[in-house]
Amino acid sequence: MFQVYAAGPEPEQPDHRSEQHQPVVGFVRLVVLLILACVIGLGYYFFRDRLTLEYFASQESYWKQFADQHPVSIYLVAYLIYAGITGLSLPGAVPLTLTYGWFFGFWKGLILVSFASTTGATLAFLTSRYLFRSSIQSRYQNKFQQINQQFEKEGAFYLFFMRLVVAFPFFLINVVMGLTTIRISTFWWVSQTGMLPGTAVFVYAGTSFPTLQELSEHGAKGILTPQLIFAFILLGAFPFLVKLIAQRLQQRK
């Protein structure tokens, strides 16, 4: 059983600071989405002639060579992008994980995604705890009560299985756990440990995708390799296997 330390008694009065910060956080997310939309729109307008599979295939070796020559810069940018997306609870974590596995390879991609996703989860956790606690608690009251009851009963072990089984959405776990008394350090290492098997599965699936040059030459029919088929089977079977293991462990208690 994991050890959990209380963060101190919670104040009974409403946290008015969270209500003040909620519009700010929502505004930041809106600005980020608008910037991304503008960048995508401008990129398509100015570079639409280059948005072809053949062009990207011709640039693939260049970018991989650039990553080998400037690893710190590439990994830092990739880390910040992933942590920012998950920290703001924006969509795109799954395709980004597959892309990182395809581009960086299994071990480098696994380490990068593991730390970046945990960083993003912790940022969302801290935002929930210190910026808009009362609004999150009122919005997800039912989920909070359910998770909090299990958390008080099982401790950090419950968070570990939520991460492992994916019983709740990624962002919901982050914000609701911010309302509990779990310590930040405990949330970090339990989350990283619990998410690691699932992260490994998705990164492995990314490594199974062919190069853009192979995709350009052979088309979609030429990419169904045994490794890719196995990766898809693993992606589909993983949640059921984890749930089965979790049920067996609960029955033994």
From TrEMBL:
Residues 94-207 form the VTT domain. It is a multi-pass membrane protein. The chain crosses the membrane at residues 27-47, 72-98, 110-132, 156-179, 186-207, 227-246. One of its GO terms (cellular component) is plasma membrane. InterPro entries: TMEM64, VTT_dom. Keywords: Cell membrane, Membrane, Transmembrane, Transmembrane helix. The keyword Cell membrane applies. It is found in: Cell membrane. It holds the Pfam family VTT_dom. Its main location: membrane. PANTHER family: GOLGI APPARATUS MEMBRANE PROTEIN TVP38-RELATED. Belongs to the TVP38/TMEM64 family. This is TVP38/TMEM64 family membrane protein. It comes from Gimesia benthica. The lineage of its organism: Bacteria, Pseudomonadati, Planctomycetota, Planctomycetia, Planctomycetales.
